[in-house]
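Quick one: structure tokens for this chain, please?
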Amino acid sequence: MKKKAATRKVNLTPVTLLRISLGVFFILLGLMGVLPTVEESVFSLTNTFLYLEVVFGIVEIACGVFIIASMFTFFTRKIKYTMSVLILVFWAARIILSKLVWGFAITSSGIWFKPDFGAWLLILSCELIIATCLWINVKAYES
């Protein structure tokens, strides 16, 4: 008698769809950071430290691959939880760098937001929504 190979069935739940969309987002964002001819537009880190775009791009690709692979592989729940926390911390660091370190300048004539306050606030809200999705992913793996 022939044994069937062990496969893992993925249930299509809201958290599963969230993980798929987060994984695809991180892979695409990472590719845009690594490829020199593609502009990340609203999610670019800075125009002055282009090597950081490449470094962050590689990490973002790895994050996206892990998020998607964790649905189809047999990583332990502890590994999934730890990696999800690390991805959330990475994203929080990215927000701090892009919005608080490089996102505005204080001059003698006032505070200047890059590109402007409305766009800065809109992009920050998008990044916070992604952080919330990552937090939901972490909570789903919590024991």
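The CA atoms of residues 23 and 64 lie 4 Å apart.
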